[in-house]
Every structure is written in structure tokens, then in C-alpha cells.
């Protein structure tokens, strides 16, 4: 094995502050899949079309995307911890308000406020975990993606169980859990040093002048179009109740978590960033094509939807590491720029899927999603050389960490017992 493909170190030896933020990340990411099991119920009980209900994703993710542009501006002025707390407070408040709402318009609006809090939290939490982690850069990313996978896995299960009682239940559930995460963050997370240079509102946009960051962001936009087409629209043709939809998307989320934690680092170590992503995206596109062709066959549809968790888990971990390595700007700025582009794709896809199905048929949205992922491969190929540079940079970081750990161990042995 070459040094350029060095495996990540153990990401699970972390201080309490990192675990507090990771727990909050789990709850935050639960908000993505939480509403999946209740989408058909919302459509029926609130007399809304699938495209109207899908606006729960659109308002949440589009606001998250746009708000990403201000996260660095805010955190560089009030500090990372205060930004985390502000984001968590907004999520607690707007999740509760969504649960209290009586119409689809109110829920969509409060999900937008939820998205603002989500942006402040997500962009800052990644930077805090990377800065505070004792498991190295790659380990911090794996821990972050693990939180994403667990949150996505648990979200549908909780949404299905609470949604079977009332569609309001999932919203109140997130509000309570986020309040717990808020307390943990206040108590356990120490204020981090403010950056020497404050971030301006234009910095995330200017960062997209870098070809590698722009290419990775556009690839993520295309990939997320396919991802959120499946996540946001597949529950409708399945024809399942809240419980069973929760079980389906929990199985899917478990695969996201497993392949984020275990498979992605091993695949990257063996095949490198570029080859792993090309093959993974191609297989993901094929899986969505299966969903498109067999949308009316419930067993095949369910199996194919669950299988997408494999490709999502691999892609999330490897692309996040690559973006944070490839960008020539501060990591919070890189995270904001990347998040802005990728969440735009995720936000628009479910609404577009509903509209396409209403004007054509149930298969077309998934065919469009599959083609979108293929376009992402073409975009990624335009930054092939930069992916190699990211791989070398990750290997250099791993060597520096190993050297520092070896030096510390030698120093400890030389000093001997106290």
C-alpha cells in the first residue's frame, strides 16, 4: 500500500467536547430523514399534493444552502461556540413551531427557519470537530460522517414511530432532542480561538474561483439531485404506512452509516479518491435507473432505495475529506462554499420530482435523477488532477500526525514513570 493511500486512524478516541458536538450533529441530521415517513400522511391529512409536501425539503435545504454563505461571517465574529448555540436555539424553536402549525404552508415556512439554524450549526460543527479532534483530520471527517449516517438512520425510525401517533410528533421530538444537545454544547464545548482574519460575506463566493472546490461542489449538486429525488419522492410510490416507511429508511440509513465509517476509508486506501468516486457514482446512477424502471414494483423499489445507502455513505465521506483538503481557503469558508452548492441541488430535487411526476409519470423523476448523477461524473473528471493533489495532501497530513504521535511516545518513554 502506498503512502498516498494511507488509511485513516481511529476516529473514536475523542474529548468530551467533540462527542457533545457529534451528538448534536446526529440530532441535526435526523431532521433530514425525519419527515420521510410522514410525507404521504401529510399529503392526505393536510390535503396537499406530493410536490407541495416536498417543499418541506425544499424550504429547509435551500435556506440551509443560502445561509451557508453567512456562517463564516457570523462565526468569525462571535466565535464557533456561540454560533453553534445560536443554530441549535433556532432549530429547537422552529421545529416546535412546525409541530404547532395547522397547515402545509406554515410547516414549510417554519422548516425554512429550521434550515437557517441548521446552516449555522452544520458549517460550524464540522470546523469545531476538525479543530478539537484528537483522531487526526481524516478521523474527524469520519466521525462527522458517522454522525450524519446515524442521524439519517435514526431519523426515519423516530419519524415513523412518532408519526404513527401524530404527524406533529416528529417535529416535537426533534425540538426536545435538540434542546438536550443545546445543553450538552453549552456545558461541554469550550470556546475556540477566533480566526486571525474575520470572514466577509463574499469570501465563500470568492472561494468558488478555485476550480477544484467549484468542481467538487457542482459534482455534489448533481449527486444530491439524485440523492434527494430518492429521499424526497420515493415514499409516495411505495404506498407504505408511517411505521413501514420508517423501517425502510432506517435500513437505508444504517447502510449510509456503515459505509461511511468502514467501507469508504478502505476503498479510498485501496483505489484512491478518483477511481472510488467514479465507480461509486456510476453504480449509484445504475441503482436510480433500477428505481426508475421498476417504480411500480414495491419489492424492487424498496430494495433499490435501501441499496442507495451504500453509495451515499461512500460518497459523503470521501467527498467531504477531498473538499476540506483541496480548498486553498480556511476550512469554515470551504465548508460554507461547498454546502451552499450541494444543498441547492438537494433542496430543488424533491419539488422538481413532484412536479415532473404530476406532468408526466412516476418514472420520469428518477430517470432525471440518474442522468444528473452521470453529469456529476463528467464534472468531477474535469478536476481529476486536483483529486490527485488532495490525495497527496491527505497522505502528508497522515504522515505528519504519525510523526508527531511517534515523537510524543518517544518523549513519554524517555521521561519514564513519574
Q: What's the gist of this structure?
A:
The chain is built from 17 helices and no strands. The protein has 418 residues and is mostly helical.
Overview features:
418 residues, Growth Hormone, Chain: A, 17 helices, 0% strand
The CATH homology group name: MFS general substrate transporter like domains
CATH topology call = Growth Hormone, Chain: A
- Give me the count of strands: 0
Low-pLDDT regions: 1-8
**Proportion of strand residues:** under 5%
Large-scale geometry:
globular
Radius of gyration, CA atoms, in whole angstroms: 21 Å
Quick one: biggest sheet? none
Measured between the Cα atoms of the first and last residue, the distance is 39 Å
Please tell me the total number of domains.
1
Supply the helix-strand structural class. Answer: mainly alpha
**CATH hierarchy class name:** Mainly Alpha
Strand/helix succession = HHHHHHHHHHHHHHHHH
Helix percentage: over 70%
Q: In the CATH classification, which architecture applies?
A: Up-down Bundle
Supply the number of helical segments: 17
Mean pLDDT: 83
Protein name: MFS transporter
Transmembrane segments: 17-35, 55-76, 83-100, 112-130, 137-159, 171-191, 212-233, 245-264, 276-294, 300-324, 336-354, 366-387
Membrane topology: Multi-pass membrane protein
Main location: membrane
